[in-house]
Amino acid sequence: MASLRGIQQPELSKKLFKLIKSENHAIGSYETAGRERIAIASQLSDWGEATGDDSISDISDKIGVLMSEIGEQEDVFAQNLEDYRSVLKQIRNTESSVQPSRDHKAKVADEIAKLKHKEPQSTKIVTLEQELVRAEAQNLVAEAQLTNITRQKLKEAYDLHFAATIERAEKQIMLARHGRRLLNLLDDTPIVPGDTRPAFEHAAQARQVLNDAEEDLRDWQPNIEPIHSSASGMGSNLMPGAESHTAPSVGDEGSTIAHDDSSSQGRIAGGEGHHFQQAQLDAPQHSEVGEINFADSQYA
Q1: Would you say the C-alpha torsion 132, 137, 140, 146 has a positive or negative sign?
Q2: Tell me: the pLDDT tens digits for 10-65?
Q3: What is the C-alpha to C-alpha distance for residues 170 and 164, in angstroms, rounded to an integer?
Q4: pTM of the complete model
Q5: C-alpha distances in Å from residue 288, one per residue of 43, 275, 293
Q6: According to the model, what pLDDT value does residue 278 have?
Q7: HEC profile of 258-271
Q8: DSSP state of 244
Q9: Integer angstrom CA distances of residue 81 from 24, 33, 124, 139
Q10: Which of 6, 175, 171, 150 is nearest to 89 (CA)?
Q11: Is residue 123 a contact partner of residue 182, using CB atoms and an 8 Å limit?
C-alpha cells in the first residue's frame, strides 16, 4: 500500500514524499539501535557478574548503566526526528495542493494552442483565453503560497533536526567521558599464578561517576545558534499580512504555519536518567537477563 500511495502522489510532491518515507525507515533504525544498545548493556552486566571478579563485576555493571542511557538517547533522537518529519509533511501537502493549479493552467493553454492550429477562427478561443487568465491568476497565488511555506517549513524542520542531533551528540559524549572515568578505576596490573587480586577499593568512586553523569544529564542545556525567521507576518492563507490578503489557501494543513521553536530540549523530562535512579537502590539481587534493571545490582 505504501508503494501504491507513492505512485498516486502528484508529480510535484513525489520527491519529498520519497524523502519523508526514507526518513521513516531511518527513524525505525534509530529506535532499533536504542533497544539493542540497552539489551547489550544488560548482557554486559550479566557477564561481569559471571566472571566472579568483584572489580570487573562492579565496573561492568556501572558501564552498563551508562550504556543504557546512551541507548535511551537514540530513542529520544528518533522521537525528535518524528517532529522534524511532520514539518516536512506540511511542505509536501502544499505541493500536492498546488499541482492541480499547475495542471489546469497547462491544460487550458494546451487546448488554446490546439484550437488555434485546427480552428483559428473559433469563438471558443476567446472563452478559453479568459479561462487561462483566471487559471494563471489562481496559479500565481498558489505558487506564492508554496514558496512561502517551503522556505519557512524547511528552516523549521531542519532547525528541529540539527538541534536534536546536537542534543544526542552532546549527551552521548558526556556519558562516554564518564564511562572512560570508570575504566580508569579498574586495575589491570598483571599478576603471576598464585597471586590474589586485592579487593576492589573504588566502589565509592564508581558510584560517584554515575552520580556525576546523572547530574550532567539533568543540568544539560542547549547552547546553539538560533535560527532566525522573517515569516512571523505570514497569515493563515500563507501570504504576508493575513488581514490585507484574501487569497485562498492551497491546503488545510499547509495553512497552519505558526512557528514552533520548541526543540528536542526537555523531550525526556521525567524519564531521562532513570537507569541512574534505578541504580540507587541497594537490593543485592542481580538483574535478569534481557532486562536492564541495574536497580538490583549488588554493587549499587
Answers
A1: negative
A2: 888 899 999 999 999 999 999 999 999 999 999 999 999 999 999 999 999 999 99
A3: 10
A4: 0.74
A5: 9, 15, 7
A6: 64
A7: CCCCCCCCCCCCCC
A8: T
A9: 9, 15, 53, 33
A10: 150
A11: no
